[in-house]
Write a structure and sequence with these properties.
This protein has 266 residues and is an alpha/beta fold. The chain has one domain (3-264): TIM Barrel (Alpha-Beta Barrel). It is built from 7 helices and 11 strands. The strands form 3 sheets. It has a 7-stranded parallel beta sheet with strand order 1-2-3-4-7-8-9. α4 (132-148) packs parallel to α5 (173-186). The mean pLDDT is 96. Bound molecules: zinc ion (2 copies). One zinc ion binds next to loops.
């Protein structure tokens, strides 16, 4: 099985291509599963510039993905998902949103610390105005809370805070271990996300030191390209597969209507 569980569409306003373009790219690469996981809407149109609206979710995204799931069912397993944001204060809205839609799975990502979109190149200067260690601590605190929220199936790119290459000055292993213990207790899985290789940090999310800790704790893994263009579907999966062999017994988690199963990745 070859599966890419993290892809986007033009609806988020910072990606190219329709869901069908991504599905066709996955088919062309010989994949047997693709997850459509564009950025989910948020309450009160929060961060509307980087995601589809609630209206678009219902009128465009959801019908398109469900139609593709049916249309391609003999060719490739298309999963209906979204990438949600963990943003304190929105939990009730997000819980209702998930309950109202029959998702195969939901990726939970932290893209905001307060009002700061820390992975947005426009605001990268803010790293220079703050203590990097404290940014990392806050970030992992949010990851822990996102796991404990019970809203998500997968922790997306769980060390995204390193995106632009800012590194903490002290060892974060203890904080990471406490975070991963919460992930383990919540029963959700950690994503190996190859998009970091295409970013200034030029490294997979998460790095191997985190994967080692996740492995020690027996946390299952999954795999996604985070493609924002169809050409990136399955990008660098040869490298990711080596990590899945080493830290996940060669198995990845996949989801159907929020039920997890494991498949061998080849
Ligand atoms: Zn995005
Ligand atoms: Zn994504």
């Amino acid at each position: 099985m070859n599966a890419d569980l993290h892809t986007h569409t033009y609806l988020c306003k910072h990606a190219d291509g329709s869901a069908e373009d991504y599905v066709r790219a996955a088919v062309a690469r010989g994949f047997s599963m693709i997850g459509c996981t564009d950025h989910a809407p948020m309450p009160d149109d929060y961060d509307a510039r980087h995601r589809m609206s609630f209206e678009q979710f219902h009128s465009v995204y959801k019908p398109a993905v469900l139609e593709l799931r049916e249309k391609f069912k003999d060719v490739i397993d298309v999963k209906f998902g979204v990438e949600g944001d963990f943003f304190p204060g929105t939990e009730d809205w997000v819980r209702d949103f998930h309950a109202a839609n029959d998702f195969d799975y939901v990726i939970g990502s932290v893209h905001y610390l307060g009002e700061w979109g820390f992975d947005n190149p426009v605001f990268v200067h803010k790293y220079d105005e703050a203590n990097i260690d404290e940014i990392y601590e806050r970030y992992f605190d949010h990851i822990r809370r996102s796991a404990e929220s019970g809203l998500f199936d997968i922790i997306g790119h769980c060390d995204l805070v390193k995106k632009f290459g800012h590194r903490p000055t002290r060892n974060m292993d203890e904080i990471v271990r406490e975070t991963m213990k919460a992930v383990k207790a919540s029963g959700i899985v950690v994503e190996i996300n190859t998009s970091g290789l295409r970013k200034p940090v030029a490294e997979m999310y998460p790095g191997e030191s985190i994967l080692k800790i996740a492995h020690e704790l027996g946390i299952p893994l999954t795999l996604g390209s985070d493609a924002h263009t169809p050409e990136d579907v399955g990008r660098d999966f040869d490298k990711a597969r080596a990590l899945i062999e080493r830290y996940g017994r060669g198995m990845v988690s996949v989801f159907t209507r929020r039920q997890r199963t494991e498949v061998r990745i080849v």
